[in-house]
UniProtKB/TrEMBL annotation:
Domain Metalloprotease TldD/E C-terminal: 215-437
Coiled coil: none
Keywords of this entry: Hydrolase, Protease
PANTHER family: CONSERVED PROTEIN (PTHR43666:SF1), TLDD PROTEIN (PTHR43666)
Protein name as catalogued: Zn-dependent protease
An annotated Gene Ontology molecular function: peptidase activity
Source species: Pseudomonas parafulva
Length: 439
């Protein structure tokens, strides 16, 4: 794949005309997919795909086109040359781009994370052994993902990341379910087995009589998967320089100094060691960026266009200025002490269908849905039917935050929209003094 990308780079270099510049991005994958229903394999297959993203720049104008690659070197070079010709014809018809800013440095980046992937037969055998008698629904995806970037200025980036991701739900005859996930780059059968058994144990609690709660504020523990939904909402422009400059960020009050979060909260865009490439889709090197430090704002994510428009320094963010590898620093609460420290309250495994009910106030709403339990004196009493919460981030991760767990979970994006995602989060669980349920 890397040689094929270099061939395209050489082809473009030879075809470029005076005054022209280009950037070329590559996205490719070879993925294995398996779908499960009733703990049986219902569909299995492989997907191999690759595409190139060509941008042509001349006299302050730019145009771009995506090219699907076939794997035939001669055909792919011709498709790229055809795209170059079409862009060359289009450029004179476009106005100059006032926010065009190019990285003209000849940077180099080469990361190849070639960890051995699990044998599918081992995965299937463990599933059969641990959950073969249960109603399991899920999907398994694994394989290498490649990203590449090159420019006429001499920049070159290459990234390969091997990963696996199995996402499943166990359904109880009551209609309720436990949702779980195991993902990463290094397969450990013992960890996968432990995750399966934990989900099975939680499924047993769903057979108890549901606990009926009235709307109100309750002490709660948010597991890492629930925290991932909250963190995902913050990625909707929360740290974006463009959103903050235009007043459309949910963290506007935090970055303006009108609000703070708990000193326990430190968010970082942790690109190093993640599945995401160390270069942006715009062609700039990416470094780790401290976003929130001990509850106070640090830096924001700035792409090249925002840097030009708002007069700030770019820091390698993608054009959408959203974290690709969000990390929340761990706390000091051991996971095995969660129920004891919770005492009486809600154990929330997942949150669902989140949205902002009041964006300027960073107020979110969503559903508990999967495996939410009522805990009394440190003991699970039974499941709580789906309820809606509505609360502000400044409460949940601010004055009401009591502790974060020592252990964190690496949660890889399960998105396969168009292609497998390289996004991830690394998050602890959170114990909060009060979470507001509205209905």
């Amino acid at each position: 794949m890397k040689q094929a990308f270099q061939s395209l780079i050489d082809t473009l270099g030879a075809a470029l005309q005076a005054g022209e510049h280009y950037t070329l991005g590559l996205s490719a994958e070879h993925s294995q997919f398996v779908r499960f229903n009733h703990a049986k394999v219902r569909q299995a297959g492989e997907v191999s795909q690759a595409s190139a993203h060509l941008r042509l720049i001349h006299a302050g104008r730019q145009a771009e086109q995506q090219v699907t690659l076939s794997g035939d070197a001669h055909l792919d070079r011709q498709r790229l040359l055809d795209a170059l010709s079409q862009l060359r014809q289009m450029l004179p018809l476009l106005a100059a781009d006032p926010y065009l800013r190019l990285d003209e440095s000849a940077w180099r980046s080469d990361s190849q994370q070639t960890h051995a992937l699990p044998d599918l037969n081992e995965v299937l055998a463990l599933l059969e052994q641990e959950t073969g008698d249960l109603d399991l629904v899920g999907i398994y995806a694994a394989g290498p993902i490649w990203r590449g970037f090159a420019s006429s200025f001499g920049a070159f980036g290459w990234h390969q990341a091997n990963s696996f991701n199995i996402d499943w739900s166990l359904f109880h005859e009551s209609g309720q379910a436990v949702k779980a996930n195991y993902a990463g780059q290094v397969w450990r059968a013992d960890d996968f087995t432990a995750r399966l058994r934990q989900a099975r144990a939680q499924l047993g609690y769903l057979g108890r009589a549901p606990v009926v709660l009235q709307p109100g504020s309750y002490r709660a523990y948010l597991a890492p998967a629930a925290m991932d939904e909250i963190a995902g909402m913050l990625c909707w422009g929360g740290f974006s320089a463009q959103a903050l400059a235009t007043g459309s960020s949910a963290l506007q009050r935090l970055y303006s100094g009108d609000a703070t979060l708990s000193p326990l909260i430190s968010f970082t865009e942790q690109v190093s060691g993640s599945l995401s490439p160390a270069f942006s889709d715009e062609g700039s090197p990416r470094l780790d960026v401290a976003l929130i430090e001990q509850g106070k704002p640090a830096r924001r994510l700035v792409c090249a266009r925002s840097a030009a428009e708002f007069g700030v320094l770019a820091n390698g963010a993608d054009s959408h200025e959203s974290p690709c590898a969000l990390s929340l620093a761990p706390g000091q609460l051991p996971r095995e002490q969660v129920l004891e420290r919770l005492g009486t309250g809600l154990y929330i495994s997942n949150l669902w269908y989140l949205n902002y009910s009041d964006l300027p106030a960073a107020r979110m709403t969503g559903l508990t849905r999967f495996a939410t339990f009522w805990v009394q004196d440190g003991q699970i009493q039974g499941p709580v039917n789906t309820m809606r919460f509505d609360d502000s981030l400044y409460n949940l991760l601010g004055e009401q935050l009591e502790a974060l767990t020592c252990e964190r979970e690496l949660i890889l994006s399960t998105s396969t929209y168009g292609q497998r995602s390289t996004g991830s989060s690394h998050l602890p669980g959170a114990l909060v003094k009060a979470l507001t349920l509205t209905l």
